[in-house]
Amino acid sequence: MAIRILAIGDIVGRPGRTVIREQLARLVAEHGVDFVIANGENSAAGSGIIPKQVAELTASGIDVITSGDHIWKRREIIPFLRDRQPLLRPANYPAAAAGRGAGVFASHDGHQVGVINLVGRIYMNGPADCPFRTADAVVEELATKTRIILVDMHAEATSEKVAMGWYLDGRVTGVIGTHTHIPTADERILPGGTAYITDVGMTGPYQSVLGRQAEKVLHHFTTGMYAHFDLASGDVRLCGALIEADPETGKALSIQRVTAKAAGT
Predict the structure, then answer these.
(1) pTM over 0.70
(2) Hey, CA dihedral for 125, 127, 132, 136, is it positive or negative?
(3) Band (203; pLDDT cuts 50, 70, 90)
(4) Percent of the chain with pLDDT over 70
(5) Could you confirm whether 154 is annotated as catalytic?
(6) Which of the following is catalytic: 70, 111, 179, 181?
(7) What is d(CA 6, CA 243) in angstroms, rounded to the nearest whole number?
(8) What's the rounded mean pLDDT across residues 95-108?
């Protein structure tokens, strides 16, 4: 029997957490989802994540939370990462960094699911190692434990995400792009059996500029002056991708975009 995995894009602040709480259980039941992965690095007021939000998101039905370049924005998350919670930081950050970048987790139907978190290097800050070489090592390790492996490629450059999809085609079940907050329409199964999408989109307020109040962002763009980018609140959506895969081979069978709106929006 196939396994169904829901990969959710960047959860932005309270609006994103609210739509997860309201809509995730329904989507899991409606689509027969066995495992949920979500990028939560923007859960704390739009930047970073704190322990109580990890607890909130997992209580809402998320099995593993991935992150990216904002993982260190809240210092209270650092000791929490050391406790091997279901929260990953990019695997291609230095080995001395707190936390882990990959793991194997049990799905609701008893399968083992490997999850790898990577961060891109093009137009991104931080001391990241090569994501491609890191992927080689981590995929090889996880493949000894499971055939189902999902990669969250958290990157700015479309080219870097697409390249990772082709690089890992046939070696992982899916490569899911996050970070740019805009859902793309290029979901597909690559020739080797890997599901791919450049960005699953933001889970948060779409009446905005990437989750922030448009007026504040426009003021900055049109004047060059500093403006505090407050979170927006309108048109809140959960965005992700549903992947169906064969647990015996690890090959993806299908991928489709999934969207759900928050109540009252």
Answers:
(1) yes
(2) negative
(3) very high
(4) 100
(5) no
(6) 70
(7) 6
(8) 95
Q: Which domains does the chain have, with CATH numbers?
A: 3-203+238-259 (3.60.21.10)
Measured CA to CA, the distance from residue 47 to residue 44 in angstroms comes to 5
Question: For strand 174-178 and strand 195-197, is the pairing parallel, antiparallel, or unpaired?
Answer: parallel
Give backbone dihedrals phi and psi of 105, rounded to 5 degrees, phi first: -130, 150
* Residues 174 and 137 sit within 8 Å (Cβ to Cβ): no
* Contacts for 88 with CB less than 8 Å, ≥ 6 apart: 64, 65, 66, 67, 99, 100, 101, 102, 103, 115, 117, 152
CB-CB contact of 128 with 92 (8 Å): yes
